Amino acid sequence: MKQTNVAGLTRLYILLIRASIRSSMQYKFNFILGAVLAAFIQLAEFAMVALVLHKFGAIHGWSLYEIAYLFGLITLSKTIYRSFANDVHHLERYLIGGELDQLLTRPVPVLLALMSQNFRLMPGEWLQGGFILGWSMAGMLRDGQITWWAVPPTLFATLTGAVILFAIGLATAATGFWITRVSELQNLTEDAAHTAVRYPLTLYPAWMKQVLLLVLPVGFVNYVPALYILRGELGAWVLPACTAVALLCLYASMKFWKYGLTKYQSTGS
Question: Which domain holds residue 253?
Answer without folding.
Answer: 2-262
